[in-house]
Design goal:
Layout lengths: L1 H30 L5 H11 L20 E3 L11 E3 H17 L3 H12 L9 H11 L5 H34 L21 H17 L4 H28 L16
Antiparallel strand pairs: 1-2
Length: 261
């Protein structure tokens, strides 16, 4: 019991360390790349995926450099897409850590208190969670909550539309008898403004989450910064890839942020 109690008590600190390291690595690579080229190359390598895999930077990771897993091609015609194993493993941990991170730290203190008094008998105890949630979840004022939900929904719509356009592009290429690995310039929707509107939709989704959570969760700010920095790192090489592959690529498109970047 003492070990379980100690682990629950230190969960907020462990989560903070996880996000500070992830966000720090992304920001360092984004802003101070020249100060640590080997480290930055490793971070960029983990961000290489899909069409940019063959243009991935050379990092001093030895045999780890080319370790990859097949990337889902549900929305893409381009079979053989890959992403680095490090990125895959981080992604797996991300969706475990994220739900834990958006809970206020008071949740873990109450869990520790329940464990100490032997009132808690497992994560599956619904009565415990019903007691915890009202006392620990403090969101923004109601107008901000509605605004955040609206932003969250808008981000999901943007992301769905972008993937839908890519899915239709896949069907068009397949119908034209194109071989695996062939690409075409995405057209329509927010693709007319940026090369990676699905990444932009992800940022909007997390902006909505940040508005809903308000100032009551420091980790929500760090997570949002990580999302923006990570997607900037991923969108830049994708945008450059399009420009190199297609001489007629629209000059007015930006990588991720309309009219800015």
């Amino acid at each position: 019991m003492a070990l379980v109690l100690a682990l629950i008590t230190y969960v907020p600190a462990i989560l903070m360390l996880y996000w500070v390291l992830a966000t720090g690595a992304a920001l360092f690579t984004l802003l101070l790349r020249d100060l640590g080229p080997a480290f930055s190359a490793a971070v960029l390598l983990s961000a290489s995926r899909g069409k940019t895999w063959n243009d991935k930077p050379t990092a001093k990771l030895g045999p780890l450099t080319d370790m990859h897993v097949p990337q889902s091609w549900f929305a893409h015609f381009y079979m053989g897409a890959r992403m680095h194993l490090i990125a895959y493993l981080f992604g797996m941990s991300y969706y475990i850590v994220l739900p834990m991170s958006i809970l206020p730290s008071g949740t873990w203190k109450q869990l520790a208190d329940l464990q100490a008094t032997q009132e808690w008998n497992g994560l599956g105890n619904g009565n415990v969670w019903l007691r915890l949630i009202p006392g620990t979840l403090h969101y923004s004022a109601m107008p901000a909550v509605f605004l955040g939900v609206g932003v969250f929904v808008a981000g999901n719509v943007l992301q769905f539309q972008s993937h839908w356009i890519l899915a239709k592009l896949r069907s068009q290429l397949s119908g034209q008898g194109k071989k695996e690995g062939d690409y075409s310039i995405p057209r329509g929707g927010t693709f007319e403004l940026v090369s990676c509107p699905h990444y932009l939709g992800e940022i909007v989704i997390y902006a909505g989450l940040l508005i809903v959570l308000g100032c009551n969760n420091l980790l929500s700010y760090i997570i949002f910064i990580w999302v923006v920095a990570n997607l900037l790192l991923a969108a830049g090489p994708t945008h450059k890839w399009y420009q190199v592959q297609f001489k007629q690529y629209p000059a007015n498109r930006r990588a991720l942020i309309p009219f800015l970047y």
